[in-house]
Amino acid sequence: MLRDRRPMQPPNAGTEQAVRFQIPTHPASGCAYSPASIGRRADLILGRLFSFWPGLDPIFAPGRTAMADGRTMSRMPVILIGGGGHAGVVLEVCRAAGVPVVGVVDDDPDCPLARAPDGVGWLGRTDSFVIPDGAGYLIAIGDLAARARVLGLLDAGLASGPVVHPSAVVSPAARLGDGVVVMPGAVVNRAADIGDHAIVNTRTVVEHDCMVGANAHLAPGSVLGGGASVGAGTLIGIQAAVLPGVGVGERCVVGAGAVVTRNVPDGATVVGVPARSVGVGV
User: Fold this and answer.
1) What is the pTM assigned to this prediction?
2) Which residues are catalytic?
């Protein structure tokens, strides 16, 4: 992976393709709407609403980007690493958040994201691609083992900052690491700490003072109670819950719908209510 110092071209520059679907237009002006522009309009309207609503805590305003360490959410152009189904969701999060996507890197030149009508251009394989100057990379692979392998090939200093969907709620007193993606409807509350490249998936709730390790995946609808912790490389399954103050170790798997009531050691797989060990993890 190399850094390209040439001036960056706009995404898909010189690679225009035939339009395969009709974009809706404004009935009066005839101007085209796009999903990204609709999202930006909605965020603007909500932002104005919050500005005229005295006494409302701005922590709940969609699109708020300040964090406890003084950084802001990423607006730098990104390259997506991975071109499958999860990457398609990450692409939509980036567009909704106003983050330009330069293209996709995948070992398959015909990956779903490269051939989708609303996708992005293929830039190369994971062992031989160039990041344009001024851009960063964002891991867009859902499988944790595959994510870990790819991360081992990449320069950590070239990672994107965190990207947050406008409908998510992130406390300004929370910390999000580099490469974190926060999906639609998720909540990250005060003093939560999300490690580099973690996935906070759709409608996940991370309560106050939680600790989430690097490259962990909090699957859709999962809930971490206040003060809970999740180790690096761990998967918390769909609609699973970790009770307040409970710790889940590194490289663990918590099955869908499980309720974790006691600490889970590194490398364990737990399922059920209450969760019980059934083997090794990721």
Assistant:
1) 0.75
2) 208
